[in-house]
Design a protein that fits this description.
- This protein is mainly α and 52 residues long.
- The protein has one helix and no strands.
- 48% of the residues lie in helices and 0% in strands.
């Protein structure tokens, strides 16, 4: 049985940068976090299916 995830919530915090400092985004950390969140959601959905 396929699992369908219909909702993706992305939360961000926007702040005014008072310092003139260019920080590079850590794309590896962002990718790992997104993958971890997706895995949690898939496991949650699988648990729901098993409960039925």
């Amino acid at each position: 049985m396929p699992i369908e995830i219909r909702e993706l919530v992305i939360k961000v915090k926007v702040e005014e940068n008072t310092q003139k400092k260019n920080e590079a985004l850590d794309m590896d950390a962002i990718k790992k976090t997104m993958a971890m969140m997706c895995k949690k959601e898939v496991k949650k959905q699988l648990d729901k299916i098993k409960e039925r």
